[in-house]
Design brief:
AB_hydrolase_1, about 220 residues, six-stranded parallel β-sheet, alpha/beta, 6 strands, 10 helices, AB_hydrolase_fold
Length: about 220
């Protein structure tokens, strides 16, 4: 059985994983979703890393799962804690020393998003409903409003504090319906930056809210 430690994306709300944690528990695994101090302008990537390292504690057999912007925190955690497997879910994959603010232009993220929108027939203008909530059940999307909060600006200007990608088995998981980070874009970044192929799961950018069972199935498959 594994110990799953779950890092949320921008906004840092552990609630993002509230449909995944009980499903992992029901299958006999431990799981903890980390609440990040993302609304605190005095906090940033080092503080996010501290919070995740504290959640890991002295646990063995750790599977670290990072969503979206959590991809910047995850390798910093792996440099400080014992992690057996790292899974990046619709995640930003940083280069050593790169900041989240630089990542968008460095990867061509915005151009990829707009191109996918034009090909898919939906608006290239960003809004939460179109890009984050389009496949989330209505009752879950409504509850999300109580937990949605802005990411403070501090973290966007802080570098990913690693010298190289950690020596931890890494998997990249791209949701087939992700409109924010289109799957082909994610596959390209994974190949270019990590030299690995991304796997695919149903769902959009907030896959833990829209397709938690499919996501857990894949996480456990990786563990095996």
């Amino acid at each position: 059985m594994g110990m799953f430690v779950l890092i949320p994306g921008a906004g840092g709300a552990a609630w993002y994983w509230h449909r995944v944690v009980p499903e992992l528990n029901a299958r006999g695994h431990e799981a903890v979703a980390v609440e990040l101090p993302s609304a605190d302008e005095s906090a940033g990537l080092p503080e996010y890393t501290d919070a995740v390292v504290a959640a890991i504690g002295d646990h063995d057999d750790v599977v670290l799962v990072a969503q979206s912007m959590g991809g910047f925190t995850a390798p910093m955690v792996c440099a400080r804690a014992q992690v057996d497997l790292l899974v990046l879910v619709n995640a930003m994959i940083p280069l050593p020393g790169e900041t989240p603010g630089q990542w968008w232009d460095n990867t061509g993220s915005s151009a990829a998003r707009v191109a996918a929108a034009e090909a898919g027939g939906y608006s290239p203008e960003f809004d939460l409903s179109t890009y984050f909530l389009h496949d989330v059940p209505a009752e879950v999307a409504a509850a999300n409003a109580a937990h949605d909060r802005p990411e403070a600006g501090a973290a966007f200007s802080q570098p990913c504090g690693i010298e190289r990608w950690p020596d931890v088995t890494t998997r990249v998981l791209a949701a087939a319906g992700d409109r924010f980070f289109p799957p082909e874009f994610q596959r390209r970044v994974a190949r270019d930056r990590l030299g690995i192929n991304a796997d695919e799961v149903p769902g959009g950018h907030l896959v833990a809210l829209s397709h938690p069972i499919d996501l857990v199935d894949r996480l456990i498959e990786y563990l095996r």
